[in-house]
Amino acid sequence: MKQLFLRSRSLRRFFSSPSSRRCAEENGSAAARRNSVEHEPEAKPVRKPTWRCFSYEEMHRATNGFHQDNLVGRGGYAEVYRGELDDGRVIAVKRLTRAVTDEQKEKDFLTELGTVGHVSHPNVTAFLGCCIDKDLHLIFEFSSLGSVSSNLHNANSSPMAWKLRYKTAVGTARGLHYLHKGCQRRIIHRDIKSSNILLSANFEPQISDFGLAKWLPSEWTHRAVAPIEGTFGCLAPEYFTHGIVDEKTDVFAFGVFILEIISGRKPVDGSHKSLLSWARPYLNDGTIQLLIDTRLGEDYDIDQLKRLTFIASLCIRANATWRPSMAEVLNLIEGGDMSSERWKMPEEEKEQEFWDLDDLDDCGTPTSSSSSMGS
User: Fold this and answer.
1) Strands, DSSP E only, in the chain?
2) Residue 20 lies in a domain
3) Residue that is last in its domain, among 87, 119, 141
4) pLDDT attached to residue 73
5) Does 163 fall in a domain?
6) pTM of the prediction?
7) What is the Rg, in whole angstroms, of the alpha carbon atoms belonging to the chain?
8) The Protein kinase domain covers which part of the protein (predicted)?
9) Are 193 and 211 in contact (CB under 8 A)?
10) In whole numbers, what is the pLDDT of the chain averaged over residues?
């Protein structure tokens, strides 16, 4: 405890300097850069961050002493509490929990801070600030409507409407495109899935939980990471087998996400049957209407279904080279040309089968960072 106190005191000095927020953001970015490359060219000028440092007293009052009744999510890296600030704003307080050492915990904290501290997009969860007193906390806007997963798989509520499912796919595509191309440095999320896509009050999808996110330097085509972490059933083949990470890692997971939205099925069901193994035959023979969540009946748009299934079939290709970028996905989802010739693969590529996901008992399941920031 003494060591943690000393390290926290040094963090407090760091954050209390005159240029605290700017330095914190740059330091977080630097931590991420050191984790990837020693000498990276200067990026775009850093915009002034809009977040601030909260006191522990504020967090304690907001969460009623981190009461268990306010615990709304727990993942491999953190636990999340619902809270309400003195001004009435409802927040999600993410408290980092998993780390071998206090030093590693601080490194993880600064790395995630360096990611979320400068991200600003309607389809990414809004970051409000942090708290470094007594523990390490990240504070976000609270999503009262919960995650896409909780809305999609809640057996006690009416099925998620097709219009909302399509809106979720479009918004998530925009958010991912922003992370890959619109940020100062390329961000690979590494854990895109329905429980990490939250819904705002007006049902706008927002990408959350950057606990596994990685920077990708501009001059690098990819990077190799270890250990393999994420959610089984959503992991791209090259990442699962070799630890290779780039934008196409997220593209693959987005393809699985689309199939989950369409079908209402989880990436891996209770019988260890993968969504990909179930969906591929219907995608291959064109019987895409058999993919639709049966709870929807005929209440869906067939043209939108054709577009989403076409995109999904491209995103889940085993060879990353033949997957689209998120810029191309966004173009397709917003009405771009779905010419089969444009996306045709060589015959030898078509013959390559995706590895068998059905027997998960023989595989080690990677760790997920998921810790929902919604209700």
Assistant:
1) 52-53, 71-74, 78-84, 90-96, 127-131, 137-141, 186-188, 197-199, 205-207, 214-216, 223-224, 244-245
2) yes
3) 141
4) 87
5) yes
6) 0.83
7) 21
8) 66-344
9) no
10) 83
Indicate whether 198 and 223 sit together in one domain. yes
266 is in an annotated binding site: no
Structural domain contains residue 269: yes
Q: Give the whole-angstrom CA distance, residue 119 versus residue 164.
A: 25
Please, how many CA atoms are within 13 Å of residue 281, restricted to the half-sphere of its CB? 4
Rounded alpha-carbon distances, angstroms, from residue 161 to 135, 151, 228, 300: 41, 10, 35, 8
* Domain range enclosing 49: 2-141
Determine the pLDDT at residue 42. 47
User: Domain total for the chain?
Assistant: 2
Q: What is the CATH number of the domain that holds 131?
A: 3.30.200.20
Peptide bond into 346 cis (omega under 30): no
Q: What is the CATH number of the domain that holds 262?
A: 1.10.510.10
Over the stretch 337-367, which tens digit does the pLDDT of each residue have? 888 788 888 766 655 545 445 444 444 445 5
One domain, residues 44 and 163 = no
Residues 343 and 289 reside in one and the same domain: yes
Q: Which parts of 35-161 fold into alpha helices (H)?
A: 56-62, 102-116, 148-152
Task: Confirm whether 368 is domain-assigned.
Answer: no
Q: Are residues 89 and 191 in the same domain?
A: no
User: What are residue 130's DSSP bridge partners?
Assistant: 53, 138
Reported as a single tens digit per residue, the pLDDT across 169-188 is 999 999 999 999 998 889 99
Paired residues of 127 in beta bridges: 140
pLDDT of residue 229: 80
Co-location of 152 and 136 in the same domain:
no
Last residue of a domain, one of 141, 156, 172: 141
pLDDT band at 320 (very low <50, low <70, confident <90, very high): very high
- Whether the pLDDT of residue 69 is over 90: the answer is yes
356 classed as catalytic: no
Cα separation, 69 vs 160, whole angstroms = 27
